[in-house]
Here is the input.
Amino acid sequence: MPICKFCTQDTKLVKAHIVPEAFYPVTGDSGQPMMLMTTERDWAERSHKGIYDVNLVCSYCEARFANYDQYAAELLMQGRHGQIISSEPNFTLIDRYSYRLLKLYFISVLWRASASERPEFRSVSLGPYQDRARKLIENDDPGRDTEFQTHLFQFDEGPARTAFLNPHTEYFDDIRYYRFYMGGYVTLIKVDNRSARSPLDDNHIQPDKPLAIGRLKFRGSSTHQLLLRMARSVRTPGWLDPDTRQ
Ligand SMILES: [Zn+2]
Here is the structure.
């Protein structure tokens, strides 16, 4: 029998999502079914269910994630729990949300992506940080805000809100981050013991501070360029381009 990667018990494993199903909306703002996109070469399927892994965790361990998944989905996808206190062109501020549940949600997605052997997540490899993430989840401890420091963004428009791309590594001033796309959000999570430097040293998820969701400009962004190249490579009509999409 395969071994649960979280508790290392030899036990029956379950279908486990890496990014929970609630972050795969049924339709995008174009009204089309969600597009699940992986890489420029490995396109792409329409998906309502998202990517799951049958070799990751047992039902007991999967249940550890359930609270975090549910809370994050309700907060970010359904607008429940928090209170929007400011909505500016460049960011939204949400007060009265749970730092613990939201931070642990992102840590648990990071752990799942790293522990998974699904090809879509192969670029996520935490090394020694994987066990640290596991410990935090096991102890229901979100850790310090600068550990796995997490930044949250949303694109201002366009298909990036409904397309999923594989997570990948990014470096800012030589500090390593992973970028995840989920449910129209872009998340940067620091996986590095060193402190972040400006402009990424502030506005991350912190206890006792409102949640800041930065707005990213889609047109002309590297994500826009990537989506356009992917669309061309699979000969999909111009729905990915806000200039041609109706
Ligand atoms: Zn387990």
